[in-house]
Design goal:
Largest sheet: 6 strands, mixed
Mean pLDDT: 69
Radius of gyration: 35 Å
Low-confidence stretches: 1-16, 52-58, 67-278, 525-548, 752-759, 869-883, 947-963
Bound molecules: guanosine-5'-triphosphate, calcium ion
Number of helices: 29
Length: 963
């Protein structure tokens, strides 16, 4: 029998004790009130409202008290106050609520800083504040570990409690644990921003402190009586505010006090959002002692718990499935279904805990996480995002999220957007991204949007210091406080002048500067033509639906594993125009300089081989001379590697140019001149002899002969690379390591007889994104950008098993092991939790050939590969092999490597790894593999639906899960 704990708490300082009483009688049939002790000393204190002049027309702040005023005033520190949700709605005007100390901005209210100051010296006034939207500020230091959540409670004196404005939204006693968690979430990845965030407080508060749970800022008018009258003396505290989404819970726009406009907004909202969605933070229905499970009240803060994304209730593993049911909207208490999430938890949507993974099967977990991320109620409410001072409507939010180049991980908050250049940032800060320009989103940009103080302007915004530094480094003349007009392509002109002065991001160095200064640069993908049009067309399609129709496939692999070859194949296979005119021109030059590069490698090899032979001859000669003097073996000191003087001088020049790193610079001018010579040289016996020893020339790629064989054609000025040429060409995919292509799988003849349901399939768009290993940064930190991919395709070059490369620490390591290490780091990356992985075992053609003469055991990881022995071991084994087919050694070895990776993957994730051997240079092979990827995605989806609809392993009753 579980004792019902009324309350038990000891204050941290060890001096004051809240009393605790433990009920030990039989279970009671009725609900017991639950209480949480409050130590008045520890309640953050409000700034006193200055000169409240209560005129008639002044809209009054609203109170929803938990307890009656006299309770509060009499025995505040001793009384147990029932856990309560008091959600009040505050409306203020500058004249009624201005903090003395705070650096209050003209129109604003009390800043949280002032709140804190007050808190320390004024125990009678209660005021708490939290800015939660972007990085949640917490004042735990002031409140001894108690997390005081959003809102403001202020009270001038106890007598006028009822008439003043109080809000106790949020709990007084959130556990230390949760404040620690919050701190972690603030200080973790974003710790560098923390101070910024603090400084931000003033600013954010200006708009938003008074709003309910987050500084959603704009707050439309609320007529005074509304809430007060309803709840003023209402001790029953389950009232969760007046919860119509939109106007009622928001505050009057103080800065632009335009009644009509507000009214318009009201109408718009009620038209668009007829449903009633509670906006005020929900409180857990039950609550035990600190750290215990909210359902069974057992456990302590160390007990592993799952948290409700709406009300923050925490459940132990025994209770979670019962408390949360089938989780149609993700991890919410059954009673919280239909309620919007706590915005501070948005970043965790879809990120499953270990506990759920243990309790449910993989498919269920996937489905729940998917629902959590995609279901409508969990989507970001549009007016939580404010752009240039204007809260967005649904259409604007969709436009913003669906544009080709959207802001990353949009959270509630205030942003500025320069529609001309696409620059985007948090209000009061430097730009964080360049998004798609020219979108009709938010209001006009304000001069002080980014809080710059440089007197230099870009498109009407005073820029920040770092931006100015960047401009200077980019060579932009900034003397004389210029006003620039910057377009989305980076071209800029001075205001009032007609001619373009240059391109800000044009120079290669500028991007680097931006990277160093953490400033955004235009993204490549933003200028994919056609994208914009289609996104505008589909603009009314909500994000969560649209997202399903674009499946992203992330293609990664260790350097040289063939990812760019596969990427190019996809373009050639599925795009009508695989490469643009421009691209072809660049590729042509790249190929031509590659050819000279290959020649250079050959010529250098030739020199080495010649010297080797001559050296040996000399040795031999000197020993021969002493033994058998006289008998000379004829040839006049020449070796097969010798070349004539004409070639020799060309060779010297080319090698010198290569060493100086100037190879690219001599093109395309040199091309015409040297082309005939190159052809002659390539056919020369010495070069051919060198080429026959190509395996000794590590620098020479296997594709070299493909181009050298046709050197004359390739080096012509009017050469146009074929698709095959482009496929074989090295170094043409991208310069920055990131490339992406959108495509649909072409409708094949065999698809025609599939019913209409599947016709839809052909509409599905896919995006293949290729990233270079070295483009991922330290600890793969850029991988986070790819959290919305549907699958990771990891490429490994099978033929790497006997290759070596220098690893990060500078030691020579087997390339297969380097690949393996990279694979592990990607698989374990938190971004790819629960993600499907398809392993491509590439270069199967090279591999098949190689294993015949280089044993697979060259790589330590494959040391137990003994295919021949195992076949000899048992006859049954052999016959079973024979029944299937006669696998080649290459196939056996490939299978073995696949199993190695599958086991590795399973040991890390407990999941199944899909594997496909590939010949990257063969179109059909790549086509087959990408279609396999599509099947996996489809299959996973179907399986998940299947399992949940008919064969669900659990229901709301969760009977099957009671141990
Ligand atoms: N024989 C053979 N060669 C391949 C295959 N796939 C790729 N290659 C060659 O392997 C080399 C490296 O391939 P890439 O596609 O450039 O590899 P990558 O992963 O982009 O490597 P980095 O550009 O170094 O990151 C190229 O010369 C390709 O032509 C294949 O299946 N078989
Ligand atoms: Ca490459």
């Amino acid at each position: 029998m579980t004792p019902v704990i009324a309350s038990a708490q000891v204050a941290e300082d060890g001096i004051q004790y809240s009393f605790a009483a433990e009920y030990r009688g039989p279970p009671v049939p009725y609900d017991l009130p639950r209480a949480v002790p409050i130590n008045v000393q520890k309640i953050p204190v409000a700034a006193v409202v200055k000169q409240v002049t209560l005129s008639d027309k002044l809209a009054l702040p609203v109170v929803q008290p938990i307890v009656s005023a006299d309770k509060l005033s009499k025995n505040f520190s001793k009384e147990l106050i029932p856990t309560a949700v008091v959600s009040s709605v505050v409306e203020t005007r500058d004249d009624c609520c201005v903090s003395k100390e705070a650096g209050v901005k003209s129109e604003t209210t009390v800043s949280p800083t002032s709140v804190i100051e007050r808190a320390t010296d004024n125990a009678n006034c209660v005021l708490s504040g939290e800015l939660s939207s972007s990085g949640a500020l917490e004042f735990s230091n002031y409140a001894s570990g108690e997390l005081v959540s959003s809102s403001k409670v202020f009270d001038q004196s106890n007598e006028n409690l009822n008439s003043s404005t109080i809000e106790f939204s949020g709990s007084f006693t959130k556990s230390r644990e949760s404040s620690a968690r919050l701190r972690e979430s603030i200080c973790g990845k974003e710790s560098f921003d923390f101070n910024d965030e603090l400084n931000q407080a003033d600013w954010e508060s200006s708009d938003s402190v008074l709003s309910m749970d987050y500084p959603s800022s704009r707050v439309s008018s609320l007529k005074t009586g509304d809430c007060i009258n309803k709840n003023n003396n209402d001790d029953d505290v389950d009232y969760i505010g007046d919860v119509r989404r939109g106007p009622v819970v928001t505050f009057r726009d103080i800065t632009s006090d335009d009644e009509d406009e507000d009214d318009d907004i009201d109408e718009e909202y009620s038209l668009e959002e007829p449903r009633i969605i509670p906006r005020v933070k929900r409180e857990p229905e039950t609550r035990g002692k600190k750290g215990s499970c909210y359902r069974c009240f057992k456990g302590n803060r160390f007990t592993e718990k799952e948290v409700c994304i709406v009300c923050d209730a925490k459940y132990c593993s025994t209770c979670v499935l019962r408390a949360m049911g089938s989780m149609p909207e993700g991890r919410k208490c059954v009673t919280c279904i239909g309620y919007p999430i706590d915005e501070t938890k948005r970043r965790n949507l879809g990120k499953c805990s270990r506990m759920l993974k243990r309790l449910l099967n993989q498919l269920e977990v996937r489905q729940i996480m998917k629902a959590e991320k995609l279901c409508e109620i969990n989507q970001l409410p549009p007016d939580y995002v404010c752009v240039n001072g204007k809260p967005l409507c649904l259409e604007e939010l969709v436009t913003l999220q669906k544009c080709p180049n959207p802001p990353k991980k949009l959270k509630p908050g205030n942003y500025w957007y320069d529609k001309v250049s696409g620059l985007w940032g948090k209000e009061g800060r430097k730009p964080s991204k360049i998004i798609t320009p020219h979108m009709n989103v938010g209001g006009p940009i304000k001069q002080n949007a980014s809080n710059g103080n440089t007197l230099v302007f870009i498109n009407g915004r005073e820029i920040t210091k770092v931006e100015l530094r960047m401009l200077q480094l980019a060579g932009v003349q900034c003397a004389g406080n210029p006003h620039f007009w910057v377009n989305d392509d980076g071209s800029y002109q001075e205001e009032g002048q007609k001619n373009t002065k240059g391109f800000i991001w044009g120079k290669a160095g500028t991007k680097l500067v931006c990277a160093v200064l953490s400033l955004p640069v235009p993204s490549k993908s933003s200028n994919v033509s056609g994208e914009l049009v289609s996104s505008q067309m589909s603009r009314s399609v909500p994000d969560y639906i649209e997202r399903r129709t674009l499946q992203k496939l992330l293609l990664v692999g260790y350097h040289g594993s063939g990812t760019s070859t596969i990427f190019k194949q996809a373009r050639i296979l599925y795009k009508d125009v695989p490469f643009s005119e421009d691209e072809r021109e660049n590729i042509k030059l790249k190929i031509q300089s590659n050819v000279y590069g290959y020649l250079g490698i050959l010529l250098e090899g030739r020199e080495r081989f010649e010297e080797e032979i001559l050296g040996e001859r000399k040795k031999k000669q000197s020993s021969d001379e002493t033994e058998t003097a006289g008998s000379s073996d004829g040839d006049d000191g020449k070796t097969i590697y010798a070349i004539g003087p004409r070639f020799k001088s060309f060779s010297d020049w080319l090698l010198k140019t290569m060493v100086s790193g100037n190879l690219e610079a001599i093109f395309p001018a040199a091309t015409r001149e040297y082309a005939p010579l190159v052809e002659e040289l390539w056919k020369d016996a010495a070069i051919q002899a060198t080429y026959n020893r190509k395996s000794e020339l590590e620098m020479l790629p296997s594709v070299a002969s493909y181009f050298l064989d046709r050197a004359v054609d390739v080096l012509r000025t009017d050469y146009e690379p074929s698709h095959l040429d482009i496929l074989y060409a090295e170094g043409v995919t991208s310069t920055n390591g990131l490339a992406s292509v959108d495509f649909t799988f072409p409708h094949s003849a065999s698809d025609d007889n599939i019913d209409t349901a599947d016709q839809h399939e052909s509409l599905l768009r896919y995006q293949l994104i290729r990233v270079q290993a070295r483009g991922l940064g330290e600890n793969c930190k850029w991988l986070e950008m790819f959290e919305d991919v549907g699958m990771v395709i990891f490429s490994v070059a099978l033929s790497d098993y006997d290759q070596y490369a220098v690893d990060g620490s500078g030691s020579l390591t087997n390339k297969m092991l380097l690949s393996k290490k990279f694979f592990e780091s990607i698989v374990t990356h938190p971004t790819f939790d629960q993600m499907d992985f398809l392993l491509i075992l590439n270069k199967f053609d090279l591999f098949e050939e190689k294993v015949e003469h280089v044993p697979l055991t060259q790589c330590d990881w494959f040391e137990d590969f003994h295919p021949v022995m195992s076949r000899h071991h048992s006859s049954s084994n052999r016959s079973s092999n024979n029944i299937n087919h006669n696998p080649t050694l290459g196939q056996l070895a490939c299978h073995y490597v696949a199993v190695k990776f599958k086991r590795l993957y399973y040991s890390i994730t407990g999941r199944k790894l899909y594997v496909s051997p590939v010949r990257g240079l063969e179109p059909t092979s790549v086509d087959t593999t990408l279609k396999y990827a599509r099947e996996i995605l489809k299959w996973e989806e179907e399986r998940a639906n299947f399992s949940l609809s008919e064969y669900s392993m659990y229901s709301t009753e969760a009977s099957s899960f009671s141990h």
